């Protein structure tokens, strides 16, 4: 009996041992992380999709420093200070070596990696009905457009790059990265247009009111944190040379608030308007006493757009894409460190060329310079300090590195539209947005004491552009005491800045006007991160390396850089416009 | 399994047979043998058994021939036993003596000497994963330690205690802090990024000795091994090769340290009580400059900043006007303080320990309780420890036995920041603080306030503020307990199950006061006081179920086999809160910090593994031994095929996870007991000669918990929290594999008067974890993968001898270890450059891992003309070339480009020792015994980071006396460069100036024991102990002490970051047995 019992026990235990062994394979050694989110728990519902979008933008915000340094330092408006290290100097005088950390495209691809991952998972979520079609359209389009923006930046800086749209999930995918061919910038533009155009949701605002991603957080609205899709599409077409499509897309943004029931928004938002004593349009170079240059308003007026927080109505009239920094959260505004002489390292400064540009202008009042310069930088004991990128509604300090990364704004929009319209044969329209606005440019009726006083409907009708309403070039600026159309307050970039318009002869001089638009970019958009791409775009379009090379040469020459001539010669070859794209 | 079942059937048949015969049972320490009392056919052997110490005959010693015959010695130590033939082996055993294996040769045996357990013998019974085994029969490379001297140990933890006591082990004590233990390197190292510490197995259960989370106290590491009291340890066996360790599979890469705690030996109640008190002496000071020299240095530094003589003279600390009216700060800045004296203090330790054991036939118990109060030499640091252990043995039925090992230890530790913490490390501050300042505030008239002085104008904290007002408290406890049941079906089969849990909790409180400490710059404000709290928990469940088989086939074949599984499920969690700026320095709990500045963090980890193992030990005629061990491991950490995003959540079905990777790690070993061969019969002076050979695979599963999975981590956008990819999943990640080859000889001569072991080994790591760089377009810098390899080979040598064996006895023990490491491969063949404490370390294929990599220097330019002639310069941060001038360090331009930069770096040092070991002398004379242990390390280099600050000549910090020789003017020939604030020329950069020879010979411990002769019956014995630790150290090293380990990572080895040094201590103790 005893023996039998023992045998049974052994047999049972043997079975138990074997069972343990096989059971283990599945469950026993499977642990899911708890302080990280495992893939098996990710992308389960639209809340997870929101988190992916927030995460991607959170990372994207970290790109500002690199974006600004690459786009401005390589151009003609920003120079290095004596504090700058050798790498920044290389960036500035186009002698960049491969080990230069500002050349590494990795930070861009980090965001792309996340977006690719999110887009793939959005597709899976849609297929499994974990996300509604509407949510899918918005989330997918938003991140898709953001990726196009980053790729456009990569293209403009590196020329030929690999266009990677698949996520890197496993280490095997890393090995496959080398299989992606480097495609030419032109080919990249084709693919970006194709991709972006096919996005299912291409409205100006990514998430309409009511969406969980359109909320107020930490005193800031999130609505304009997300990329404006028609604008990036417009940019892509503009680079590609499809000017009508570019203009169409830009116009979509320009007209987006035309039906807003708040008439201040309807008439002022993104329309570059004159000052009518309202916070909605306090974006004009203003003086408390005309002709007294000491009376320049520096805490309002044109500088308002940089000072005000993103929930401010003035800021909202101008900007349609900008991401705020909050000193309470990471990252603080990285440009404080780069630009400020008091609270940062003061690595970059306005170039002498930029300063001279402003000083070459003349205001209506006779003040012999463009006040936008005084509102974009300040003179300090250390030298000129860029303030545009660090302006904030609360006083800057070592501990308050707030501010915003303002990316898309009305000034930029109008100049780009001008550029597109001009190239599309609408030079007069381009001239109008650049100088004095629609009404002043097109009105041909009666004036009384210099003021427009139309006497007939026909005269009023000259206050609009002569295109069908379906045309992207149609802008209605008609107004009288009874009737105001959406564009009646439009005033033109130079008018808003209180500087005299350029000669009307440019209304029929496409190439001349294009040059003037680029010159205006330097005055209006200096330091904001569009200079180098602007130069490359125009030089490409005109097939004129000298255009670009000369501008950089002037910067280096005025800075006394011994490399100036060599750099000019180097930049005469378009292949040298691009940073080395290292596979490291 | 089938094999096991078949065997069991055979065994039952056998048992039926023996059941009928008249049998008696003998027990040795470890095995129970049944001897059939039948007419025995064989050869009769006679002889005498004597004590190896006294040469007195031993009465009642047991002699057995396994499964054959047995005998006892008579009053004269004589015996007579029948052996089956002249190939047999007799086991000679006696209580508290080593069990000797004795080959029988034709004819009468000579006098057999056996030695008490305390003697270092090759016939010791050692504990292996498969059970007890006589060292003489083992095929594995083992080191063995029986810490009987644990009674005399002075504030040791098990890991520091083994220093110098085991061959092949280089135990480097982390610092002098009580309880902090040692980093234990068994035969060098096998990994770059995974652990290099051995696996600890305590009473059959894996003892996780890793410390989870980072301490709030800089430079501190919680040491779980301090929860084991050395006096509770019965023995320690270290498996150095793959053979016996292979059953621990992917945890055995760095050796397996098997610790057995003591159980009751006798049924009689035994009470042991001991009490100790000791004194710790502060270390020898590092000579820093006095007031005058420092003032002169300071004025040079200020001058180098461009200050004019007038500006320098206007500094309050330079103003020598003693009039309190015109110069109210004169008194404040004209003191003479020896800051090291203010930080280091002698201290007193106390310790009590009580052990009670006893029981009856059914149950035996051993209960111990200890209290110790150890103090460090940094003023007001301490470690108070309370420990309790309950070990029991239960004979439940004839077949079912069990034992429990339950321990609970609580430690409360008061610490101070150490290491790289310039604001709050009191030792560092005591070296760099200006000597003309005082501890307390001083008024214009010279009155000393009871208030401590503020952080000074030179930006240095007051170390006394940290000592008196700062708080670095750690409260930690660990419960470690298991219960083990053995069911012996019969003498062949035994089923055992061990179940246990570990629960460990560490709670820390941090307070760095506002007053007296320099401020911390936070992103949004100034942090004046800092508050912190942290809880770290570790919990683990362990189960080991195995079936073992023991059988002798015929007279010549013996087989032991076991099959089992171990399952471990562990989790760790760390949660901390850090805050700043409480209202006053009295409000020190985290809740009083400024809410806006508070932040929280932590980490959760879970892992589990299943280790199935098989072991088979076979011997033929007790001469030829063969052993096969193998493990099959599965772990949550290993890669699996489909765990990345291609695994989709599909409705309610869950996940289909296949392709779990399993490690299969076998090891084979053989031993040949040459001394048992017939041809050795005439070599009477050889007691044992054994040749061993083993080869096998073991693994290292310290590869991170979740690298095999794709996961997401938090990313904020202002106050919104989003998710971004946290990694690139590596479904192929696996254990590091270490192939270990070992060959060795064990020998014992002259009746065990001399015994030695010599081993040669080659450890080849493949599938070694390394970071694989990813192309820029991958978006991340690197991922972790098994793409490296290294090789470590070396020799271990251990020798024990009794030189004098008269009234005065003298035992000499020597251990020696040496290893050479070489990196075989790294991902892409690219060098790994790591940085730590301003130093750079090179890991390159074909060279030893982690070499110091910096500039070479050759003195100082005496004149600018000399420097100009050399023509060297540096490129400054803005890219301009700046030439060296007089007083700058003369760097060697390795690549000849005339520019001193990173490209000129070469290997300037190697932290690995050429040889390490110990010499141990034990003298005993009547009731006295003296134990003298020397430990030494030779040929290792140390990067003296502390000195690199104290001789940098580039800041306001006080400097060592050497800096008095700094270059001060053209033509001065010296080897100390000029003082220059901020070091624009890089004179103090990482170079051979800071590399020193770390060799040392230390009188590690001296212990004198006196056995008090007693007449009183109530007291069984009384012993007095006098122990001295770290008595002296012979070294050329310029820092406090050449022994330290900033962290367990090999990338920080040999870097002196200003840790609490080892200190000299003396202890008196008494032990009374009742």
Describe the structure.
The complex is a heterodimer of chains A (584) and B (1074). Chain A has 25 helices and 13 strands. Chain A has helices at residues 2-28, 46-61, 64-73, 86-93, 106-127, 133-158, 171-176, 185-197, 229-240, 243-254, 263-268, 304-307, 313-318, 334-339, 352-359, 371-374, 410-423, 427-434, 437-442, 457-460, 493-496, 510-524, 531-542, 545-558, 564-571, and strands spanning 37-38, 78-80, 161-162, 182-183, 216-217, 220-221, 319-325, 348-350, 377-380, 383-386, 403-409, 447-448, 451-452. The termini of chain A are far apart. Mean pLDDT of chain A is 91; it is low at 21-26. In chain B, a hairpin with a 3-residue loop joins strand 4 and strand 5. Mean pLDDT of chain B is 89; it is low at 1-23 and 643-658. Classes of the chains: A mainly alpha (584), B mainly beta (1074). At the A-B interface, helix 1, strand 1, helix 2, helix 4 and helix 5 of A face helix 1, strand 31, strand 32, strand 36 and strand 37 of B. Strand 1 of chain A pairs antiparallel with strand 36 (711-717) of chain B.
Give a quick rundown of the structure.
The complex is a heterodimer of chains A (584) and B (1074). Chain A has 584 residues and is mainly alpha-helical.
The largest interface is: A-B, 98 and 92 residues
Q: Work out the radius of gyration of chain A.
A: 28 Å
Count the strands of chain B? 58
Task: Record the strand order, biggest sheet of chain A.
Answer: 2-8
DSSP strand content of chain B = over 45%
Low-pLDDT runs of chain A: 21-26
Note the total helix count of chain A: 25
Tally of contiguous helical segments of chain B: 9
Shape of chain A: globular
Oligomer state of the chains in this structure: heterodimer
Largest sheet of chain A: 2 strands, antiparallel
Secondary structure topology:
The complex is a heterodimer of chains A (584) and B (1074).
Chain A: H1 2-28, E1 37-38, H2 46-61, H3 64-73, E2 78-80, H4 86-93, H5 106-127, H6 133-158, E3 161-162, H7 171-176, E4 182-183, H8 185-197, E5 216-217, E6 220-221, H9 229-240, H10 243-254, H11 263-268, H12 304-307, H13 313-318, E7 319-325, H14 334-339, E8 348-350, H15 352-359, H16 371-374, E9 377-380, E10 383-386, E11 403-409, H17 410-423, H18 427-434, H19 437-442, E12 447-448, E13 451-452, H20 457-460, H21 493-496, H22 510-524, H23 531-542, H24 545-558, H25 564-571
Antiparallel strand pairs in A: 2-8, 3-4, 5-6, 7-11, 9-10, 12-13
Helix pairs in contact in A: 2-5, 2-6, 5-6, 6-8, 6-9, 8-9, 9-10, 10-17, 17-18, 17-22, 18-22, 22-23, 23-24, 24-25
Chain B: H1 2-20, E1 23-27, E2 32-36, E3 43-51, E4 62-65, E5 69-72, E6 78-83, E7 89-93, E8 100-103, E9 111-114, E10 125-128, E11 131-134, E12 142-145, H2 158-161, E13 169-173, E14 182-186, E15 199-202, E16 205-207, E17 233-239, E18 256-261, E19 270-281, H3 291-304, H4 309-313, H5 339-343, E20 347-359, E21 363-375, E22 382-395, E23 400-414, H6 426-432, E24 440-442, E25 448-452, H7 463-468, E26 471-488, E27 493-512, E28 520-521, E29 526-527, E30 530-553, E31 557-580, E32 599-620, E33 624-635, E34 662-673, E35 686-700, E36 711-717, E37 720-725, E38 736-749, E39 754-773, E40 782-805, E41 808-825, E42 832-836, E43 839-843, E44 851-854, E45 857-860, H8 864-870, E46 873-875, E47 881-883, E48 889-891, E49 906-909, E50 915-925, E51 928-938, E52 941-944, H9 945-950, E53 995-997, E54 1000-1012, E55 1021-1029, E56 1033-1035, E57 1055-1056, E58 1064-1073
Parallel strand pairs in B: 3-9, 15-18, 52-57
Antiparallel strand pairs in B: 1-2, 3-6, 4-5, 4-7, 7-8, 10-11, 12-17, 13-14, 15-16, 17-18, 19-20, 19-58, 20-21, 21-22, 22-23, 23-26, 24-25, 26-27, 27-30, 28-29, 30-31, 31-32, 32-33, 33-34, 34-35, 35-38, 36-37, 38-39, 39-40, 40-41, 41-50, 42-43, 43-44, 44-49, 45-48, 46-47, 50-51, 51-54, 52-53, 54-55, ...
